[in-house]
Q: What sequence folds into this?
């Protein structure tokens, strides 16, 4: 156990030193980065080192309170989205596709999509690649133990991880991200 801890400490030190060298080389470009970029990347690396999984590090996850059904969670997400002037644009029932292919029952995994077309337009007008973040999705899933979770892409990297966004786009992207988190937290606790 001590050997593993020491190896991880060395890997961490090498990573930090490598990051320092990289930052020194990238200083001219980095000066244009969002003021919060460094703290966002530190959080990402901490989650990556803890989980050893980039998918986990890039995802924002909320466990659903016991006793709340999948259908109640979905209804809650849609209701809260409406309260935030956020459009529900559809659901993809992944578990049904798995069942159709395998012929066997599968745990619930579905993807609900939401959109704020005005903010989406700002994003597309700013950078075509931002369409990859659209529409905003929330996965409603039952884990292998039967617990329901909500997962979404953590938008902090898109909002703060590079060159600072234009003020209007940044403000609206933050509003969308706060709405997404409010939807997920509210649905996870059974709010409508």
A:
């Amino acid at each position: 156990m001590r050997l593993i801890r020491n190896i991880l400490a060395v890997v961490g030190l090498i990573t930090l030193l490598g990051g320092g060298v990289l930052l020194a080389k990238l200083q001219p470009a980095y000066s244009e980065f969002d003021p919060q970029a460094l703290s966002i990347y530190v959080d990402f690396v901490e989650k990556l080192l803890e989980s050893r999984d980039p998918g986990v590090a890039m995802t924002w996850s909320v466990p659903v309170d016991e006793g709340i059904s999948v259908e109640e969670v979905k209804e809650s997400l849609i209701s809260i989205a409406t309260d935030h002037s956020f459009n529900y644009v559809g659901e993809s029932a992944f578990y049904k596709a798995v069942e159709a292919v395998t012929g066997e029952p599968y745990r619930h995994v579905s993807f609900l999509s939401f959109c704020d077309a005005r903010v989406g337009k700002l994003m597309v007008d700013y950078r075509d690649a931002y369409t990859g973040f659209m529409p905003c999705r929330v996965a409603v899933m039952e884990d292998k133990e039967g617990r329901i979770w909500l997962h979404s892409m953590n938008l902090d990297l898109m909002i703060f991880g590079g060159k600072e966004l234009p003020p209007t786009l940044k403000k609206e992207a933050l509003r969308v991200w706060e709405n997404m988190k409010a939807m997920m937290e509210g649905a996870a606790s059974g709010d409508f």
User: Anything to note?
Assistant: The chain has eight helices and five strands. The mean pLDDT is 90.
